From TrEMBL:
<keyword id="KW-1133">Transmembrane helix</keyword>
<protein>
    <submittedName>
        <fullName>Type IV pilin N-terminal domain-containing protein</fullName>
    </submittedName>
</protein>
<feature type="transmembrane region" description="Helical">
    <location>
        <begin position="12"/>
        <end position="38"/>
    </location>
</feature>
<keyword id="KW-0472">Membrane</keyword>
<dbReference type="InterPro" id="IPR013373">
    <property type="entry name" value="Flagellin/pilin_N_arc"/>
</dbReference>
<dbReference type="Pfam" id="PF07790">
    <property type="entry name" value="Pilin_N"/>
</dbReference>
<keyword id="KW-0812">Transmembrane</keyword>
<dbReference type="InterPro" id="IPR012859">
    <property type="entry name" value="Pilin_N_archaeal"/>
</dbReference>
<feature type="domain" description="Archaeal Type IV pilin N-terminal">
    <location>
        <begin position="11"/>
        <end position="80"/>
    </location>
</feature>
Amino acid sequence: MDVHELLADERAVSPVIGVILMVAITVILAAVVGSFVFGIGGQVQPSSPNANFQFDYEADGSTYNVTARHSGGDTISADETVQLATPAGTENFTGDVSAGKTAMVSGVAPETTVRVIWVSANGEDSSVLAEEQTPA
């Protein structure tokens, strides 16, 4: 057998490459179909808005009047809920929530956690946009 003839024989190269490509395509196709069948590919979670809130505390005897003010970032649509939540009560922001909008709750005890909470329009998603503690 001649070595030059053996090295020059390329008859099996094309079928081997073809089989490798077919296997690769099959694996990729199976992964894509599987991700949609098992619900991985079709679910995109809505993200909460990127908004900044500032808290102001006004002493009222032994408690505080807490005001949350939208100080920048995304404008939040009126069909979504944005609320100032405290143990003393909850107050919703009204209309579109943009820079300058406020909500206020009275009678909040010292060293109490207050939060601005966002709830999506469909009510399925929520997020804490801001959190702080009242002064001591």
